[in-house]
């Protein structure tokens, strides 16, 4: 209940309609059920720490090691509206009006499952419209877009992103979530892909010392849409990445390649729920975890194939590398299949660095440390290469990963 | 039994070497000396310890030396790490070269070459200079430049993998190369290319140990000595005609041998 009071105090009862709705729902379930599948492995003390920071709607000066905008790339910072007008002039990108935002969010909330969407309820309770960005995108000549969400130290910040991709639209979108020292960032993203649209979506989240993240991604795919997600989460004391994708009428394609890297005593988890609500759906998903020191990485994935989703072709793999005897990895890919004419597979592996690969490299004069780095970078490669990121950003990301 | 003049100091001396893995003895007192310019062939049934011997010389961490010494250029290397052995000039050509997805072959070759060059106090090569060097060496094994942009050995055919091994040997310019069944999985043409590559790289200052099951590689590269291994020991040593005799009579013929001391 403490968080609810904190939000009410922060906004002095000047709550928006959405905030009121969400707070009412949170009253019913003030904290996620720790016995539920989605939350049972979540570190409670770390989660309490996430909620401990004071709610803050103010944004600090935007500061990122990512270089300034590449030529031909649109950069947007949630909470900083100054660039939106410029974009509207040049490209087919429109900012959603507040009325439309409210209408859409209300529709979404009506479909929420209390425990499953707890992170979204919290996010929308914390956020007046100040830190919400809604975009409607159409056309096929859209340059790559980068959208940043950043936290501020000693604060709990919430950022919300809503994107409508209209028919036949095709975009590359990189979303970057930046943690700050001693901070909590709540990020909720709602993505709607209309017929024949396609997106290469990258989500890169990296934090600093003692930063926390609750990152929720909700995607609705209409007929013949293609959603490609490449994600990377690292350097957070505590982070949860929740992905919910619904192929609303089947006949859509989803590709997901995600990775989380944990060190020290960090805990990073990924939860995915892919819901096929029509026939001929396709999914190819791989999730990788890399856990070192005393850290804990978690993956739980579920694929729902109801009777209507005949001819679904879905694959979900979880591959994990355990780099220390004290690190922990939990993984649970699962299928829920009712339809009888489907092709679904899932699997999980947990291993350590490949000794034979290391020996091979060492017999060529490469030191054990260098060989391990090369092997890890090859492990990253499959995921990183799937993130739509331009060359100048890639060098930086490579550096950040090596530092980590 | 010497078919070459052994005036220089030996490159490699394996002295009464015994080794085990998981407390299982694999080598049981192997002795072998290689002088500059010599080519030795080691033959024997599967599981007799040939590949293990090569891995132990290269420093594989899964094996423990329980007795004996390995000396390289007069220095005991029993406790050296695999990378230190490689940098100082020991090369192991793998029977099954390892695939390393995501690591570009070009970068792998460059890092390896520079590690060796650093040991030799030679200037390390930047990408451009290395490209020049590798282009020249590719000729030796008739490999296409396109192989360099692929991941190490990933998707390579058996023959391409073996040629990539010889390319690495050419770049690293080792003092001694131990080639573990480099001929396995090669068709006749590929075998000739690989054999010709090995001959071009070897010289009067280097030593070569060929581990093989078949005479066909030895038709291309004539060894000075042939050793037959059985149950972790060298049970017979002879000159190149020993391999021909083995080919004719099979390994059963060697079962009656008494270990030569």
In words, what does this structure look like?
The complex is a heterodimer of chains A (404) and B (261). Chain A is an alpha/beta fold and 404 residues long. The radius of gyration of chain A is 21 Å and the shape is globular. Chain A is 25% helix and 40% strand. Chain A has helices at 2-11, 17-28, 44-52, 84-90, 98-111, 118-126, 355-362, 368-384, 391-403, and strands at 54-55, 74-77, 93-95, 132-137, 145-150, 155-165, 170-178, 183-193, 198-206, 211-221, 226-234, 238-247, 253-262, 267-276, 282-291, 296-305, 313-322, 328-337, 343-351. Chain A folds into two domains: 2-248, no CATH class; 354-404, no CATH class. In chain A, the strands form two sheets. In chain A, strands 1, 3, 4, 6, 8, 10, 12, 14, 16 and 18 form a ten-stranded mixed sheet that branches. The longest helix of chain A has 17 residues, at 368-384. With 261 residues, chain B is α/β, with parallel strands linked by helices. Chain B has one domain: P-loop containing nucleotide triphosphate hydrolases (Rossmann fold, 3-Layer(aba) Sandwich), CATH 3.40.50.300. Chain B contains eight helices and twelve strands. Chain B has a six-stranded mixed sheet, with helices on both faces. In chain B, strands 2-1-4-5 form a four-stranded antiparallel sheet, with helices on one face. A two-stranded antiparallel ribbon of chain B has the order 7-8. The A-B interface holds A 355-357, 359-368, 370-371, 374-375, 377-382 and B 58-62, 81-83, 85-87, 91-92, 94, 97-98, 100-103, 108, 111-112, 115-116, 119, 151, 168, 172.
């Amino acid at each position: 209940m403490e968080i609810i009071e904190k939000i009410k105090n922060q906004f002095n009862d000047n709550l928006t309609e959405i905030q009121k709705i969400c707070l009412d729902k949170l009253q019913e379930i003030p904290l996620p059920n720790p016995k539920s599948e989605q939350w049972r492995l979540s570190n409670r003390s770390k989660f309490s720490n996430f909620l401990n920071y004071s709610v803050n709607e103010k944004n600090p000066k935007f500061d990122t090691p990512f270089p300034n905008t590449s030529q031909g790339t649109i950069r947007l910072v949630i909470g900083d509206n100054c660039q939106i007008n410029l974009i509207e002039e040049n490209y087919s990108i429109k900012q959603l009006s507040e009325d439309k935002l409210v209408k859409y969010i209300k529709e979404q909330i009506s479909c929420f499952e209390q425990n499953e969407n707890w992170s979204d309820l919290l996010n929308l309770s914390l956020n007046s419209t100040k830190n919400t960005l809604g975009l409607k995108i159409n056309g096929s000549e859209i340059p790559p877009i980068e959208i940043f969400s950043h936290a501020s130290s000693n604060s709990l910040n919430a950022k919300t992103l809503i994107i409508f991709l209209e028919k036949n639209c095709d975009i590359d979108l990189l979303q970057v979530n930046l943690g700050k020292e001693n901070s909590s960032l709540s990020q909720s993203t709602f993505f709607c892909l209309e017929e024949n649209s396609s997106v290469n979506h990258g989500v890169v989240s990296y934090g600093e010392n003692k930063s926390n993240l609750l990152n929720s991604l909700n995607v609705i795919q209409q007929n013949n849409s293609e959603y490609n997600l490449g994600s990377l989460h690292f350097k957070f004391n505590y982070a949860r990445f929740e992905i919910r994708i619904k192929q609303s009428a089947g006949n859509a394609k989803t590709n997901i390649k995600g990775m989380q890297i944990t060190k020290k005593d960090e805990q990073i988890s990924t939860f995915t729920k892919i819901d096929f609500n029509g026939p001929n759906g396709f999914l190819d998903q791989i999730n990788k975890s890399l856990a070192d020191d005393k850290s804990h990485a978690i993956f739980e994935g579920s694929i729902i194939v109801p009777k209507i989703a005949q001819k679904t072709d879905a694959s979900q793999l979880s591959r994990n590398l355990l780099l220390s005897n004290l690190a922990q990895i939990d993984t649970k890919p699962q299928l829920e299949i009712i339809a009888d004419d489907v092709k679904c597979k899932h699997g999980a592996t947990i291993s350590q660095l490949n000794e034979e690969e290391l020996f091979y490299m060492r017999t060529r004069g490469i030191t054990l440390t260098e060989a391990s780095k090369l092997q890890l970078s090859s492990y990253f490669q499959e995921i990183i290469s799937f993130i739509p990121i331009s060359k100048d950003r890639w060098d930086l990301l490579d550096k950040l990963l090596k530092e980590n | 039994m010497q078919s070459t003049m052994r005036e220089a100091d030996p490159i490699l001396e394996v002295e009464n070497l015994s080794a085990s893995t998981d407390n299982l003895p694999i080598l049981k007192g192997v002795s072998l000396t290689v002088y500059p310019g010599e080519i030795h062939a080691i033959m024997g049934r599967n599981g007799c310890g040939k590949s293990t011997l090569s891995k132990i010389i290269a420093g594989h961490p899964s094996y423990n030396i329980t007795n004996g010494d390995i000396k390289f250029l007069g220095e005991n290397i029993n406790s050296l790490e695999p990378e230190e052995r490689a940098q100082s000039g020991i090369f192991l050509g793998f029977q099954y070269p390892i695939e390393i997805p995501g690591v570009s072959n070009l970068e792998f070759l460059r890092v390896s070459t520079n590690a060796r060059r650093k040991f030799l106090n030679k200037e390390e090569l930047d990408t451009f200079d290395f490209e020049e060097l590798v282009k020249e060496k590719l000729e030796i094994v008739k490999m296409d430049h396109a192989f360099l942009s692929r991941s190490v050995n990933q998707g390579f055919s058996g023959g391409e993998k073996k040629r990539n091994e010889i390319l690495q040997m050419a770049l690293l310019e080792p003092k001694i190369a131990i080639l573990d069944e480099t001929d396995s999985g090669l068709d006749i043409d590929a075998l000739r290319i690989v054999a010709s590559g090995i001959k071009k790289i070897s010289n009067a200052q280097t030593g070569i140990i060929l581990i093989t099951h078949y005479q066909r590689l030895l038709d291309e590269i004539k060894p000075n000595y042939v050793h037959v291994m059985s149950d972790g020991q060298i049970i017979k040593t002879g000159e190149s005609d020993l391999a021909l005799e083995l080919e004719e009579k099979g390994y059963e013929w060697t079962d009656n041998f008494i270990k030569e001391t």
